[in-house]
Amino acid sequence: MTRLNRNERLADSGEKYVKLRSLLQHLIDIGHPYAARMAERGLRPEHLGNREDLASFPTTTKYDLLSGYPFGWFAREKRDIVRIHATSGATGKPALIAYTADDVRMWSENMAWCMGLSGVCENDVVQVSYGYGLFTGGFGVHDGAGVLGAMVVPISGGFTDRQIAIMKDIGATVLACTPSYALRIAENLEGRDTDGIKLRLGFFGAEAWSDELRAFLERALGIKALDMYGLGEAMGPGVSAECLEQNGLHISDDFIAEVVDPATLERVDDGEEGELVLTSWNRQAFPVIRYRTRDLASLLTEPCPCGEPTPRMSRVRGRSDDMLIFRGINVFPKQIEAAILGVSGLTANFRITVCKTRGLQDLSIVCERSAESKPEDIDAMTRALKKSISNSTGASIPFEIAEPGSVPRLDGKSSRILKK
Ligand SMILES: [Zn+2]
């Protein structure tokens, strides 16, 4: 594939930085907002020769991108742009993300590379249950699976009964969606006839999810569940993905990844957790230079047994802006998910309520017991969950175990956190 040739060509060649310098010059020529940020620090494209130099360049944030709404951060004329997507989850106006025809091709190739790491090929039937539309999930998987020659089922999210019927009838082998939607599909299948389900792989991303949820999804759906990472600002899904080894996500060669301390913005050592910062040297319409993803992860440098030579990142532990504070302890929703799934008889559906008590952040959790559990087991589950939450988070967060099916289900990319 062309993609592998490019990897070989770019290995240690510094060509990435040649391209990055000409990109920065282009940003100066068109009066792009990033050029002004460089000028404030007296930086010119020639100051960027290697990865070390990159650390002195300014970071960009989602706030920067939002401030340029709608077209302020576009780096190409509107006539060159063939696709628009938008960031999700923010309040108010989204940040619009632009793609030239080459950008769409590069994105599709990246997605094909990510899915190819685990052997997706023309024999596969890929059910794309990510949302389509301005969100990048649906189209990203769709185009990548198309490059691999797989049969693509662009079903989008929702209508879970129909999803399952089509999944069986058409013999889908790969499911791609958010982990919370995969959970919903898995729950709908519980106690039902699973004849005809031929799934072997799941690509789940757009949210941080725990190893415990992975184990549940693998068991319930009979699949290998793989983490896939990306974000609209940087392209969409396809920035990195796990191979079948499931020991970190291989990072696409089209991105330079750094991990910084979110408070000081200093780079941290490989293996140390911090905020992931991404630079795209190969995007035309919407390049990002040192974009602060807010996602907390670490860089892994030891070689992967699969033989793919790209650097890897850990799975994302949470977002720095998803971090909750309870009695001075940092808590992530993913840790709570792991704690709940560590107790038998509880489902993976839960909700965290955040409120302020006398100016301090206070948390409470509502989870639910499964339909198979017995009401007389609630006392034992309560004791086990108390211990499990304390082990997982280091905090004694109050919780309630509700009746089966009473916690609202999530469709697609929505939040488990309720702020009051
Ligand atoms: Zn690997």
Distance between the termini: 51 Å
Helical stretch count?
12
Number of domains: 2
Main β sheet profile = 9 strands, mixed
Which fold name fills CATH's third level, the topology of the largest domain?
Rossmann fold
What overall geometry do the principal axes of the alpha carbons give?
Answer: globular
**Strands of the biggest beta sheet: in what spatial order?**
4-3-5-6-7-8-9-14-13
* β-strand amount: 25-35%
Poorly predicted residue ranges: 1-6
How much helical structure, as a percent, in the residues?
25-40%
Structural notes for this entry:
- The longest helix has 16 residues.
- Helix 9 links the parallel strand 5 and strand 6.
- The protein has twelve helices and 21 strands.
- The N terminus is likely disordered.
- The radius of gyration is 22 Å and the shape is globular.
- It has two domains: 221 residues, Rossmann fold (3-Layer(aba) Sandwich); 96 residues, GMP Synthetase, Chain A, domain 3, CATH 3.30.300.30.
- Helix content is 30%, strand content 25%.
- A nine-stranded mixed beta sheet has the order 4-3-5-6-7-8-9-14-13. It has a four-stranded antiparallel beta sheet with strand order 10-11-12-15, with no helix packed on it. A four-stranded mixed beta sheet has the order 20-19-18-21.
- The site of zinc ion (ZN) has 6 residues, from loops.
Task: Write a concise keyword list for the protein shown above.
25% strand; globular; disordered N terminus; binds zinc ion; Rossmann fold; single chain; 2 domains; nine-stranded mixed sheet; four-stranded antiparallel sheet; alpha/beta; 420 residues; GMP Synthetase, Chain A, domain 3
